[in-house]
Amino acid sequence: MTVEWKDMMLDKVAIGPVSARVYQGADYGKGPPIVLYLHGGAFLDSETNVDRPVAMSLAKSGAIVAAVDYSSLSGNLFPQALEVSFSVLTYLANKRAGLGDRKSLLFVAGEEAGGNVAAGVALKARDQMPDALDGQVLISPLLDPFMGTSSIRKAEAIGMRQRWTDGWSHYLSGGGCHPYAAPCLCSRLSGVAPALIFTAEDDPLHDETLGYGARLKKAGVGVRQHVLPAGTGWPSIYGGKSEGVPDWQEHVSRHFESFLRDVSVQPQLH
């Protein structure tokens, strides 16, 4: 499916106007799913109006994907990044911002640092607006501020170890470590929206991603997880060094499309 995009301003969000790049398939159907997409960047990047290949891959499934600039208003700090993102989700839940209609399913998605914020948004949505969120898509989410897993040892080789260390220090510089800031530390995961989780064999975030998925399952949350083989260029998603041409896009599109069908037929995925 051909994907088109346009830049727009979500000017009625409670926290203030938020810019977004909206991706949608040229032939999306009636009542298309709406995805709030949160970009990566190790809690350090604040680029706006740039191409988001993950968002484009999600849009190829027929969804309308709003890649919002949560960084400019938040400075990539906790809790501001979470509050901006949750405010946009609340707006989309109430009004859909003219994207889709009230029958449209609502999802939050993000990769790397954005995957962290997406997981936090899903937890807060469970606590403050139950049943409003239909699913979460976590793409190599950056979840462990202690960076203590075995797979994270691969981060040095792809040039991400120091970047993630600096990013965590920046994001948590306000002090403390709330469960919304580090979802892998959250002790209560039951009732959160069904999750679609992606990682790869050569992903330094492999262990914390699958560890979080396992904890969600144990809490009774519906989880679909996919581990791509090494060599698909997966680390390039968040700026890591990777040999060869990335070919992960089709995997993301196909599995997200399947997840959409599952949620539509069986919302709880339990």
From TrEMBL:
Domain of life: Bacteria
Transmembrane spans: none
UniProt keyword list: Hydrolase
Pfam families reported in the protein's UniProt record: Abhydrolase_3
All copies of domain Alpha/beta hydrolase fold-3, residue ranges: 35-229
Any GO MF annotation of the entry: hydrolase activity
Protein name as it appears in the record: Alpha/beta hydrolase
Organism per entry: Rhizobium chutanense
